[in-house]
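Fold it.
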Amino acid sequence: MGVLRWIVNNLLLVLTVGGVFVGTAIGFVLRPYNLSEETIMLLSFPGDVLMRMLKMIILPLIISSLIAGTMNIDKPQVGLDDERKFPYISTKFRKTQ
């Protein structure tokens, strides 16, 4: 009864680990069949969509964290007034892209 309760309480973890094992098993089973490019594209599509969604979520979080962290730095450490910090940071970020 304790194991079943743990599985129910940690269902997301169990399903994630199970999905990793099932995906790995399917990959090993399908590898010898030399699938066509179209079939490979169709099988990899859900993973590509997931990675793009994660990028859309994570990139704005990183940028906003960098800007908020820099805006909280004291003036003597950066050498810029508060009015000049944000334009300076945004131009530096645009140059690195």
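The chain has a mean pLDDT of 83.
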